[in-house]
Amino acid sequence: MRGGGLLVAGTTSDAGKSVVTAGICRWLVRQGLRVAPFKGQNMSLNSFVTRGGAEIGRAQAMQAQAARVEPSALMNPVLLKPGSDRSSQVVLMGRPVGELSARGYHGGRQQALLGTVLECLEELRATHDAVICEGAGSPAEINLRRNDIVNMGIARAARFPVVVVGDIDRGGVFAQFFGTTALLSPEDQELVAGYLVNKFRGDVTLLEPGLDMLHGLTGRRTFGVLPYAHGLGIDEEDGLRVSLRGAVRESVVAPPVGEDVLRVAVCAVPLMSNFTDVDALAAEPGVVVRFVDRPEELVDADLVVVPGTRGTVRALAWLRERGLADALVRRAAEGRPVLGVCGGFQVLGERIEDDVESRAGEVEGLGLLPVRVRFAVEKTLARPSGEALGEPVEGYEIHHGVADVRGGETFLDGCRVGAVWGTHWHGSLEGDGFRRAFLREVARAAGRRFVPAPDTSFGTLREEQLDRLGDLIEEHADTDALLKLIESGPPGGLPFIAPGAP
């Protein structure tokens, strides 16, 4: 097989397209096939930097790991990073090319990118046995169909079969499957091979009569019913979701090694980006991670993390409006740990000069670190490595702000003053040795008898979760039928469902 493929669409956003795509990738690579993930256009504030210096969605980087291949810009040629409700930065082939309003993008610019998207897909097809494409939102967003480059537009251009995923946990999945199919044109319906039920709880036999009725109404089969799986900890496009050891805002799953737990509060700033940085903390036994938006929620926190954001100045204003800025200043004065990452690092500094992102000019920071930040037009995209706290560290950088560090102790190209740390490096806590050293420092400063687990491997945990996704597909989907679709394309002869039928 060479160049086969499948489009995983969804009835809604967050139906489970990303994890199903990753699961199919992991299942296929375990069958000895060369597999690549693909998403023509992604809208997300969670992104990653490839070894080639290209910025892509973290979901595609995770899917590449599931497929056991190196992530590349080919896998996500268009990335939209929202800066407001109405505009986004457009990242093309891993590099920012400008800001566009939603109207400007969907009004014509999007269609102009179709050629690039299809070229990337064809290049992946030429070098892999199968390409598993992830759609975006729903293919039945008929107001956007004309310029679509990520759902049925891709499927029709590549003649890929489409499997539609629906989240039954939300309810209404049969109506979603039927309505999604009925709203498509005859040419698009021809490619919809069937459905995949996601997040089912209970006895599958109770669901089967409904699946039979759905087949009778649409002429299309259901390829599997995936059970609800807790604690998958897989990178999504956006939204707070489960960590590797349990859901954020929930209690500790794994007991602490030492006498105390360690409580981490993450400020849920506007346009929060790469909040996956805290996943490695949540993976540690005895570490509780929660996202907060009130100053009183910082009182019992042993560590406060100010994460990355697409709107640094806006996040700074939000921290002040909420009273969180004052709480952070008090913590620093008391010697209680604070970590700022990327945009969070920038707000902890003395001053921000921004004529690029917010165009707010000069803005006073929180003054917790001796740093002045100036926003540059060109974005920094890098994969740095170094050493901190006596341990090797690797990370990745995605930022317009250029930091002028004027004092303090050097810390991952940022700085540290007392118990306040700041860095532009995302992903640094995924290094097991460095994470343990950092948590020991936090525990000491917080006065906690917390001991990091000596054998926790974030990489191993991530691999275990990707294998769980592969297991879900292998054990609960009709893999023979899926493989036939990937090899042979759309089945053909499927009936057209007119809107309003039956």
TrEMBL record:
Q: In which pathway does it act?
A: Cofactor biosynthesis; adenosylcobalamin biosynthesis
* Active site per the UniProt annotation: C342, H426
* Residue ranges occupied by any CobQ/CobB/MinD/ParA nucleotide binding domain in the UniProt entry: 7-238
Lineage of source species: Bacteria, Bacillati, Actinomycetota, Actinomycetes, Kitasatosporales
**CobB/CobQ-like glutamine amidotransferase domain mapped to chain residues:** 263-432
- Alphabetical UniProt keywords: Cobalamin biosynthesis, Glutamine amidotransferase
Record NCBIfam families: cobQ, PRK00784.1
One Pfam match: GATase_3
Q: Specify the protein name.
A: Cobyric acid synthase
User: What is an example of a GO molecular function annotated in this UniProt entry?
Assistant: catalytic activity
On the tree of life, the source organism's domain of life is Bacteria
Identify its protein family. Answer: Belongs to the CobB/CobQ family. CobQ subfamily.
- A single GO BP: cobalamin biosynthetic process
Q: What does this protein do?
A: Catalyzes amidations at positions B, D, E, and G on adenosylcobyrinic A,C-diamide. NH(2) groups are provided by glutamine, and one molecule of ATP is hydrogenolyzed for each amidation.
- Origin organism is Streptomyces kanasensis
SUPFAM superfamilies attached here? Class I glutamine amidotransferase-like, P-loop containing nucleoside triphosphate hydrolases
